[in-house]
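Feature request, filed as a ticket because there's no other form

It would be nice if the structure record came with a short human-readable summary line next to the tokens. Right now we just get the raw output. Example of a typical job, pasted below so the devs can see what we mean:
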Amino acid sequence: MSRSRHPIAILCWLVALAFCLPATAAIVNYQFTVSATSGPLDGQSFDGSFSFDDQDQPPATIDGLFPLVSFSFDFDGTAFALGDLDYGDAVFDSGSFIGLEAGNSTFSFLPAISPLPPAFLYESVQGPGDGNPSFTQVPEPAGGLLAAAAFGAMLIGRRRSPSRR
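Raw output as currently delivered:
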């Protein structure tokens, strides 16, 4: 590698590293599944997703309620959206996500309250029941993809230039 190309390689690596570092403010996305454990829907599963703004808080210090900015839930043949909720917040305690506090006249999500896990309650046409929600944070792929693109661009640039001896 020639001396004139060395600063470009360093710059590419620094840009890639910057994109790999976690962002401090972002929309955080989750997917969830609710498994009904009692009532007329016992044994059925229902899927959804939600997101919230972490409001510039470092992940380890997130605490309290964060209003949902999106919500989607297919439950018992009905598609529910953010506007269908009477209330909706992601709940954190000491940097850990402990569940949703969200609901309407058909269902409610309750966050974990030690020693109880998060809960889901519903009222269907056939009667009431409950279930177990499970949540998975959706990773942000942008940082890793940008780092790979920067590395690929550096390799392509290196192959195209003639070598000096």
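Something like this underneath would help us a lot:
The longest helix spans residues 142-160.
Residues 73 and 80 are 5 Å apart (CA to CA).
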